[in-house]
Amino acid sequence: MTRYVLQRFLGMLSVMFVVVTIVFIIVRVAPGDPAAVMLGPDATIADIQALRTRLGIDQPLIVQYFLFLGQLVRGDLGHSIFLDMPVTSALLDRAEPTFFLTMFAMLIASCIALPVGIMAAYRRGSFFDQSVTTLTMLAASIPSFWLGLILIQFFAVRLGWFPVAGYGGPDASFFTRLTHLMLPAVALGVVSSALITRFTRASMLDVLNDDYVRTARSKGMSEFRVVLKHAFKNALIPVLTVLGLTAALLVSGAVVTETVFSLPGIGNLVVSAVLRRDYPVIQGALLVIAAIYVLINFGIDMLYLMIDPRVRY
Fold this sequence. Notes:
Blueprint: H1 2-29, H2 34-39, H3 45-55, H4 61-73, H5 87-122, H6 127-141, H7 144-158, H8 174-207, H9 211-218, H10 223-234, H11 236-260, H12 266-276, H13 279-307
Helix pairs in contact: 1-4, 1-13, 5-6, 5-8, 5-11, 5-13, 6-8, 7-8, 8-11, 9-10, 11-12, 11-13, 12-13
């Protein structure tokens, strides 16, 4: 078991090193000069060069890269060019909407996908199963931002049940926050539920006809207990994998949804930083999202040890 954990941990560090390098290169080769953007169209070449020197972006890329690595080792994500504050503080200020949006959307996706996927597998070939297969293909084809616009038009504009956009005022209650997150969470959750449903159904189909399931039935156990305790437990590893991937994708996929609903989250911050060429914020946000992605997958690997003892050997 120790070897398994160590291998996964070293793999996580290797992935993060590759991500750090790729993020640094992509941000630096992107067109646009942050100094020119900051100073505006009336700035002289001398003013732009002076600002580039002050920001340290006039140095060779290799020098900037090692300086960047040194900052990361110290836990420093840099200083925002436009916000004039540490990138860590800027991300923490925007973390709450993104966190609750991701958790809310994940809850909605799981509540839809798991029971529907289990029932579709149990009633394989039925009208219900065929309907689920069709609807999941349709849901997987719908862009979350388009579904969000439809939800805004119907539930916010016509019916007035939910706010159109925003996250409430500074003193808004938790319930008010949830009402602002309802529509974007549904938009993300419905789209994400399609993949989880298909994996749950496929995984359940693999185990429902196994010998131990037939043995459990022959002992007189109820179908509810057979399906949930025996079949679903053994089908859980592929489902956990897709749940982890979905949670990580929701964090990164919230960028467009937050922009549509004007949520002051990390996704909205990234969009603003890209438009302003705010290198430190772009780098910091992408690295945090990548770290969350890797940590979630590492956590899923650790859950395998609890669910399936065979992984330990």
